[in-house]
């Protein structure tokens, strides 16, 4: 009997992107093996031969997301940017990315909170949890730099201000899923940046 292998035209990179979109849209628990096989156009034996397991594929898609769409947050760690400008660039970049038509709406990192909510699945979403922690630390570092550079009042509660920006960032996903436009989200970013006094003209976006 001939062995059932992967399709001759199987493109792993394309398959991972398709799987990423499914997980992004439905979450880990909401995406079934049947959906993955149908979307990738492969059989169960081919799926396991290519990816090992659903969890392993999920980890691979998270890595793909962080290296692509999720990289909009990397500016938080750019020492060449002024701290307020880094936060503005991150928020505007994330808002823009979350409503692009070429992929599911929202942010896979933020939506990962409910992607696999069962305690037993904590290891599954560890990569997304770590990404949220990194974003949180990046925002806090920017606020702390702003205080150290006297761009913010020395009495500013750094953790509280950073928490406000992070809460806004996470909330963008809900708005994006509810159909908010880029213009609406961009205007919301302008408003939340008033928490950090300074010019707000969108220049950080360019």
Automatic annotation (TrEMBL):
<dbReference type="InterPro" id="IPR009057">
    <property type="entry name" value="Homeodomain-like_sf"/>
</dbReference>
<dbReference type="InterPro" id="IPR001647">
    <property type="entry name" value="HTH_TetR"/>
</dbReference>
<dbReference type="InterPro" id="IPR023772">
    <property type="entry name" value="DNA-bd_HTH_TetR-type_CS"/>
</dbReference>
<keyword id="KW-0678">Repressor</keyword>
<feature type="domain" description="HTH tetR-type">
    <location>
        <begin position="9"/>
        <end position="69"/>
    </location>
</feature>
<dbReference type="GO" id="GO:0003677">
    <property type="term" value="F:DNA binding"/>
</dbReference>
<dbReference type="Pfam" id="PF00440">
    <property type="entry name" value="TetR_N"/>
</dbReference>
<feature type="DNA-binding region" description="H-T-H motif">
    <location>
        <begin position="32"/>
        <end position="51"/>
    </location>
</feature>
<keyword id="KW-0238">DNA-binding</keyword>
<protein>
    <submittedName>
        <fullName>TetR family transcriptional regulator</fullName>
    </submittedName>
</protein>
<keyword id="KW-0805">Transcription regulation</keyword>
<keyword id="KW-0804">Transcription</keyword>
<dbReference type="InterPro" id="IPR036271">
    <property type="entry name" value="Tet_transcr_reg_TetR-rel_C_sf"/>
</dbReference>
């Amino acid at each position: 009997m001939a062995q059932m292998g992967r399709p001759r035209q199987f493109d792993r990179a394309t398959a991972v992107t398709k799987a990423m979109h499914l997980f992004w849209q439905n979450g880990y628990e909401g995406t079934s093996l049947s959906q993955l096989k149908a979307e990738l156009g492969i059989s169960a034996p081919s799926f396991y031969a290519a990816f090992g397991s659903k969890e392993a594929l999920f980890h691979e898609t998270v890595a793909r997301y962080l290296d692509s769409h999720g990289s909009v947050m990397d500016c938080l760690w750019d020492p060449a940017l002024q701290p307020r400008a880094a936060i503005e660039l991150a928020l505007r970049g994330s808002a823009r990315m979350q409503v692009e038509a070429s992929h599911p709406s929202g942010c896979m990192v933020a939506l990962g909170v409910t992607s696999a909510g069962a305690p037993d699945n904590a290891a599954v979403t560890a990569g997304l949890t770590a990404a949220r922690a990194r974003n949180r630390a990046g925002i806090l570092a920017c606020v702390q730099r702003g205080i150290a550079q006297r761009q913010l009042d020395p009495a500013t509660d750094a953790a509280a201000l950073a928490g406000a920006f992070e809460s806004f960032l996470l909330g963008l996903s809900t708005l994006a899923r509810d159909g908010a436009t880029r213009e609406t989200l961009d205007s919301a970013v302008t408003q939340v940046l008033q928490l950090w006094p300074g010019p707000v003209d969108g220049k950080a976006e360019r």
